[in-house]
Amino acid sequence: MSATSDSSKTHPTIFFIFGGTGDLTSRKLVPALFNLFLDGWMPKHLAIVAMGRTAFTDEQFREELLKDINQFSRRGKADQAKWDVFSKSVYFQVSDINNTATYEEQAARIAKFTQDAGEAPNVIYYLAVAPRFFGTITENLNRHKLAADAERTRIVIEKPFGHDLASAKELNRQLCSIFSERQIYRIDHYLGKETVQNILAFRFANSIFEPLWNRNNIDHVQISVTEQLGVGSRGGYYDEAGAMRDMIQNHILQLLCLVAMEPPVSFQADEVRNRKVDVLNSVRKFSPEDIQRNTVRGQYSKGWIEGKEVPGYREEQGVNPQSNTETFAAIKFFVDNWRWHGVPFYLRTGKRMHQSSSVITIQFKDVPHMIFPSEAVEGWQQNRLIISIQPEMSVRMQVQAKRPGLEMALNPVDMIFDYNGTYTGDTPEAYETLLLDTMLGDQTLFMRGDQVEAAWDLLMPILNAWSGKKSLSFPNYSADSWGPETAEALIARDGFHWFTLPLKNNGHHG
Ligand code: BG6
């Protein structure tokens, strides 16, 4: 989250990417590192060492990466001359994580790099591998004294961080026996998104919102993250996870924290993270009756999306044909503190939904007294602040206005801050922000251990209830719909409805 690009801010750095031949590395990590280089953030002394069992030479691996960059980078096809310079810093280490030689070779690389740079570098271990390998890797790093420098060595952990509270605690215990908390960077890529970072800016860099940001003025909050995609080739992973673990435990609870947190006293990582943990600890824990009343789970059946027939969840590759895993979840939460007492927070997420869009809607209370005749206010809408995270990147304030004409007729209009209209140039991808922050040693946008545990703690009663009682209605929504009808009922019961932003070529509006 640095202000201006300046390669002198980044210290000589060596990245080791475990899982160097995986999708994350080719689609996200290397394009992001290349973009940081193009934007002038990379230090003069840089090495990116991808680790994996495939017998690539450095040259072969670089050629593969170039193809990926051309396909996946936000900047499109790479400038060959710039790629040639950057790719000299990229290496492939043929390695097996169970093998001592792997770690000895890493130690040798670090020693040589240190000599070339003339000072001790930052050493970043990026674990882009399945969680079952975390233990082996971290224990070996420790055994070979590769993580001993608490100032300069860092470890980046991808989600999922645990499968439940007990396993997350165990993983934290394991990591913290080797690394100190300030060395551990737990990724939630939502926190790196521009529009998500902007929530803090919007709330705490403007004086006009804070006086309104509470139970006296806000009716309810919606956080809706819907995806048109199904589970694709990730059925094996997803069937063990489901929407609650895959999206709510991390991304959506993080959004909830950003909306609901108290103002931190400063922008220091721990000040911000303390206030977020407070939110998680204030969310009301559900009793079995609460779960029944305030949660909805769903699973998609087959359907048609944009003229193509798509399979139902139980027909997806890697998925149990009798699966009880939810691909949709909706929850009505309460944040029990002075600011939010009595304000419902409705959360929903689902795959194979009608529209891909992530939107936070803050709905304000209605006017205390209506002075306009009913015929003047058709389509009346309470004020809303709509923070659209993606694909539209905007903040809209929805207000009532007089429609031009001789009669007094009102309708809702949007005052819009639209990123594309306001700023020129590309927006950095979440991974660029997060990788740069890892190099700079800024943990603000990473999850602290206690935060991850608080999020699991909150969800465990629901997860246990759902796994203990098979849903008899699955599948209960068809692909290309807005999820199960019971999710509409969850919010309609309180007199509201789910808000959706109209997309181009897409007629839906809340
Ligand atoms: C990932 C989930 O963390 O986030 C995926 O595992 C999901 O299932 C993805 O599709 C959504 O991320 P984004 O950035 O596309 O909204």
TrEMBL record:
Catalytically driven reaction(s): D-glucose 6-phosphate + NADP(+) = 6-phospho-D-glucono-1,5-lactone + NADPH + H(+)
Cellular component terms per the entry's GO annotation: cytosol
Recorded GO MF terms: glucose-6-phosphate dehydrogenase activity; NADP binding
Active site annotation, chain numbering: H251 (proton acceptor)
Keyword NADP attached: yes
Pathway it works in: Carbohydrate degradation; pentose phosphate pathway; D-ribulose 5-phosphate from D-glucose 6-phosphate (oxidative stage): step 1/3
Gene3D superfamilies in alphabetical order: Dihydrodipicolinate Reductase, domain 2, NAD(P)-binding Rossmann-like Domain
Domain Glucose-6-phosphate dehydrogenase NAD-binding: 17-198
GO BP terms in the entry: glucose metabolic process; pentose-phosphate shunt, oxidative branch
Major enzyme class: oxidoreductase
SUPFAM superfamilies registered for this protein in UniProt: Glyceraldehyde-3-phosphate dehydrogenase-like, C-terminal domain (SSF55347), NAD(P)-binding Rossmann-fold domains (SSF51735)
Organism superkingdom: Bacteria
Domain Glucose-6-phosphate dehydrogenase C-terminal residue range list: 200-498
Listed EC numbers: 1.1.1.49
Binding site for NADP(+): R53, D96, I97, K159
Family: Belongs to the glucose-6-phosphate dehydrogenase family.
PANTHER family from the UniProt entry: GLUCOSE-6-PHOSPHATE 1-DEHYDROGENASE, GLUCOSE-6-PHOSPHATE 1-DEHYDROGENASE G6PD
Known role: Catalyzes the oxidation of glucose 6-phosphate to 6-phosphogluconolactone.
Protein name: Glucose-6-phosphate 1-dehydrogenase
